[in-house]
């Protein structure tokens, strides 16, 4: 006997559900365009700080320069390597993305340590106390956290490392992504507090300060959303 073909109404409903509506397409295009614009902000924010800091004019000038490059550009772009909407190497294989990720993250750690050393030595030279502001305390915590996060990244990169044997590779990746997003949130808070420092407020207009802080909030939101979508919605931690 012949199998009965599904009704035309059922076929059309299945096709309509499979094909995204024009509204969904426009939303995806708008979201992709917004996330692509963030790359411009990630370049523009460090350039703005470099313009006002004039690196090389003093020891202190290297602190905002290196820290903004580390947190606002290198670390942010390293995380976005895995973004399905705004990765600069979206069509590349995952192995290549991982390679670019750890290269940028290593550079971010080096820049952060350099920026921390610059402000620490500068304060010693001028007999000023350390970690007296929220910006200083958050900055100190951020430097420690990114170093610890880097060790966790090594464990993900080399699963046979002794520290990585207690967890499955999939669990290590999930933990690394979640902890990395939390560390980046602290880094964004450090940057945001830095834009309220005496040096920055004396050199920029209040609108520039507002846009700089808004950029940090945008960075934090995008990274949190990316990690949550990838691991919070699809693959719960530890499963």
From TrEMBL:
Main location, first listed in the record: membrane
Cofactor requirements of the protein: heme b
Comp. bias intervals (Low complexity): 7-17
SMART domains given in the database record: B561
Top-level EC class: translocase
CDD domains reported for this sequence: Cyt_b561_CYB561D2_like (cd08761)
Gene3D superfamilies given in the database record: 1.20.120.1770
Keyword Ribonucleoprotein: no
Residue ranges annotated for the Cytochrome b561 domain, each copy included: 31-233
Keywords: Electron transport, Heme, Iron, Membrane, Metal-binding, Transmembrane, Transmembrane helix, Transport
Transmembrane segments: 34-53, 59-82, 102-121, 133-158, 178-200, 206-228
EC code: 7.2.1.3
Locations listed in the record: Membrane
Location of the region described as Disordered in the Swiss-Prot/TrEMBL record: 1-24
Topology with respect to the bilayer: Multi-pass membrane protein
Top-level lineage group: Eukaryota
Name assigned to this protein: ascorbate ferrireductase (transmembrane)
Organism: Porites lobata
Lineage: Eukaryota, Metazoa, Cnidaria, Anthozoa, Hexacorallia
């Amino acid at each position: 006997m012949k199998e009965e073909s599904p009704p035309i109404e059922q076929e059309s409903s299945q096709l309509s559900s499979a094909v995204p509506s024009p509204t969904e397409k426009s939303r995806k295009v708008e979201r992709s365009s917004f996330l692509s614009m963030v790359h411009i902000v990630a370049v523009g924010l460090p350039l703005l700080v470099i313009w006002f800091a004039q690196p090389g004019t003093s020891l202190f000038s290297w602190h905002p320069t290196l820290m903004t490059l580390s947190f606002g550009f290198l670390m942010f772009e390293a995380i976005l390597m895995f973004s399905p909407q705004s990765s600069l190497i979206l069509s590349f294989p995952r192995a290549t993305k991982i390679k670019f990720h750890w290269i940028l993250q290593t550079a971010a750690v080096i820049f952060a340590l350099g920026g921390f050393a610059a402000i620490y030595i500068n304060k010693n030279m001028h007999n000023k106390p350390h970690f007296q502001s929220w910006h200083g305390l958050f900055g100190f915590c951020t430097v420690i956290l990114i170093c610890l996060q880097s060790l966790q990244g090594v464990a993900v990169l080399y699963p046979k490392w002794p520290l990585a044997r207690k967890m499955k590779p999939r669990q290590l990746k999930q933990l690394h992504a979640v902890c990395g997003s939390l560390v980046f949130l602290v880094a964004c808070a450090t940057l945001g507090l830095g834009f309220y420092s005496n040096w920055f407020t004396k050199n920029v207009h209040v609108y520039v300060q507002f846009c700089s802080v808004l950029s940090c909030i945008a960075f934090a939101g995008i990274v949190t959303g990316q990690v949550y979508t990838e691991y919070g919605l699809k693959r719960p931690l530890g499963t």
